[in-house]
Amino acid sequence: MALRPLKQVAGAVVLLTACLMLTMTPGAASLAQSSQASESRNGDSLNSLVFQYRTPYFTKDLSKNAVWADLKAAGYVSSGQTLKVKSKHGDMAAVMLENGDTPCWIPAWYTTAAAKSVQETSFAYVALKPGTVLALAPGGKLTWAPPKQVEKLVAAAVWKDWTGILISPQAWHTDSSIARPIMLWVRSANIQSRKAIPEGVLSTSSSVSVDLARNVTELLLQQGDAASKVKKLLGEPSFVEHSANLAEGGKPLRIGTTWRYERPNAQFTVSFAADEKLEAWKWILPADPKLQLGLSVDGDYKFCYDFTSFPGTATVPAKPVWRNQGELNDAYLLGATDEVLLVDGDDGGFSGMHEASSIYAVDKASGRKLWQVNAGFGSYSAALDRLRGTAAVYTEYSTAHHRYESWVRELSLKDGHPIWERRLPEGHHMQMYAVKDSVVVYQMPDSVKDDGLLTVLDRATGAQRWTRVLREGQMILHTESEDPNILLQDGLMLQALNPKDGAVAWSVTGRGDIHRDLQTHPYYAYGNIGLPLQPERGAVRWFLIGNEWMLLNTGSGEKLAQYAWSRQEQFETTNEQRYILVQQSGGLSDFDGSKVEKTALYDVIAKRVLFTLSGKATNGMFDADRLYVVLNGLPVAFDREKGTLLWEMPVTTHESASPYTMDEMAKTRYAVLSRYLLLGYGSDMLVLGKQDGQVVGRLSDNQIAFREARYRKGIEGLLNMEGDEIYIGSSNGGLAKYSVKALESQLDQVK
Question: Where does the secretion signal sit in this chain (predicted)?
Answer without folding.
Answer: 1-29
